[in-house]
Design brief:
single chain; 245 residues; alpha/beta; Rossmann fold; 2 domains; 8 helices; 40% helix; globular
């Protein structure tokens, strides 16, 4: 029987010229057997397009704001990739207000939907933030705890104003600490897999699937056929992760 590809499958595997960026504004993750989460794999090209759109939001703000953004802090690990891409859009325009990019490290998740009791700063801001207008850059606003915690943390260190940017926001995060700039929205039960965490998500979820009865072949089916992982990446890591799980 022929398999009719879903829109998600088409978008994960299509050429860059065929990407429908509007699909990615409110995408639905795929359901996995015996898993309470849905999973959404974001290709490199799609993330680059998302960042390009958010960069335009920042440029518009910079041109109209009485107090433009002067510092951007990439939240490790999630904010590093979008932050680096954002840097390329924002720092090479001589007429635009200058933004210095740095980083701040925070730890909240130990795995998909596995959280610490509260966020922990593991690396202080690499930039001086006193009297600066700061934007926090992250890939996802999940429940809003990280962005709220860091906003308070940077405010306590003397920032004049703290804003935030996330590629995706979930409903709870929009209530707890809405981002000033974002690209799209996800359901609360969707786990986003960005290009910087393909292997990390495999390492965190394969043991869970194995514990719940999935075979190695079934794990491969879920990763490649359902979620849309590149087969070569699964071939490289699956056997080892399954044996260790």
């Amino acid at each position: 029987m022929d398999h009719t590809m879903t829109t998600y499958e088409q978008q994960v595997h299509c050429r860059a010229a065929d990407i429908d960026i509007d699909f990615w504004r409110t995408p639905e993750g795929v359901a996995i057997p015996d898993d309470e989460l849905r999973f959404l794999l974001v290709p490199d090209t799609v993330e680059a397009m998302m960042v390009g759109e958010v960069a335009e939001q920042i440029k518009a703000f910079q041109q109209s704001a009485n107090e433009p953004i002067t510092r951007a802090l990439m939240v490790t690990m999630g904010g590093l990739l979008p932050g680096i891409l954002l840097h390329d859009h924002l720092v090479h325009m001589p007429s635009a207000p200058h933004i210095a990019f740095g980083s701040i490290g925070v730890s909240l998740y130990t795995g998909p939907d596995q959280r610490r009791p509260k966020p922990q700063v593991v690396q202080e801001s690499s930039l001086e933030v006193r009297d600066e207008v700061v934007i926090l850059v992250d890939d996802l606003g999940d429940r809003g705890d990280t962005l709220r915690f860091l906003s308070e943390h940077i405010t306590e260190r003397g920032a004049r104003r703290v804003m935030s940017l996330a590629l995706f926001m979930k409903p709870r995060a929009k209530t707890v600490c809405p981002a000033n700039f974002y690209f799209g929205e996800l359901t609360q039960d969707t786990w986003i897999i960005t290009p910087r965490e393909y292997v990390e998500t495999m390492a965190k979820r394969i043991p869970v699937w194995k514990q719940r009865g999935a075979t190695q072949a079934e794990c491969q089916r879920r990763l490649v056929d359902l979620i849309g992982y590149p087969p070569h990446l699964v071939d490289t890591y699956l056997e080892t992760l399954f044996e260790q799980g």
